[in-house]
Predict the 3D structure of the following.
Amino acid sequence: MTPFDAFKGTRALITGGMGFIGSNLALALVELGAHVTIADAMIPGYGGNLFNIEPIRERVTVNFCDIRDANVMNYLVKRQDFVFHLAGQVDHILSLTDPFPDIDINIKGTAIVMEACKHHNPSTRVIYTGTRGQYGEAVSLPVSEEAPTHPKGIYEITNLTAEKIIEVYNDVHNIHSVLLRLTNIYGPRAQMLHSRYGVVNWFVRLALDNATIKVFGDGQIKRDFLYVGDCIRAILLAAICDEARGEVMNVGIDRPTNFVELANTLIEVCGSGSWEFAPFSPERKAQEPGDFYSDISKIRRILGWEPETSLRDGLAATVAYYRQHKAHYW
Ligand SMILES: NC(=O)c1ccc[n+]([C@@H]2O[C@H](COP(=O)([O-])OP(=O)(O)OC[C@H]3O[C@@H](n4cnc5c(N)ncnc54)[C@H](O)[C@@H]3O)[C@@H](O)[C@H]2O)c1
């Protein structure tokens, strides 16, 4: 018996389920015996990829739809035990030049999902994945959930707003919700076509292409890079733990790595690629929060969750996946 046996026979809706984290979650839930429905709009430039769910294609229901379509969401949330709300505009670079997709999808879309739950399935559980970017610059390290939130971009503001919206539905409308703030996640099934988000995966692509990785600044900025398998375990535990209700929890690692270490480890694991220093572009410089790594004592205490995958092992698994399935991601 494991705590995850609780998912057997349950019904789960995953918004953004064709994307990086959503598809890994779908695979895990199907493996655990849940009936999974995916809602995804497959917006070009985002992470949706049909191949992501190849191993479970016959065992999930896929609904190509937009979370901003209230009629569809009203229908899809019905009879779901869990609503994993992962659909979003996640390109923080784009959000600097055009704030409206973030505002529309991440704020309005989240309100539509929560209204659908309120009217059509108030006893469901909602799990939301926000971002460490909601904190902005770290006031002290590691960054705990008590730290002030000073987001440096529209993407991050809209994630914080979505979190606040969901908190209202939890507190006022009595919809059991859990709010996670994810650090930089990497691993199989992320988009590999552009560098606007997902820095570790982008480095993996360059190493596999035997190209030169650009390490911005002096490469000493600290980050907690978390393997997607660990992230999925956190999301699953958050869904089934009664004590997690209404809580905001960091999902990260309290052992940080800097970008030079990341590049060196990756090149060693991959056996190809190289790296060089490069100056920040002005827009990246403006958004760079400096050193960041998460205090994970709260999620440890409430969920008993612990990151288990070392950077080296996580990178090796990521490299192996893309080496095998390159044709579907390049
Ligand atoms: N990957 C990370 O490092 C990371 C870090 C912090 C937070 N997050 C959050 O986790 C969630 C998932 O991120 P990801 O990395 O899997 O991104 P992703 O781009 O791979 O997946 C997002 C999916 O959402 C879908 N989508 C976007 N707008 C939609 C809409 N209006 N209707 C329906 N589907 C829509 C996209 O088509 C895509 O398949 C996001 O909310 C993101 O903000 C991710």
Observations:
- The longest strand covers residues 125-131.
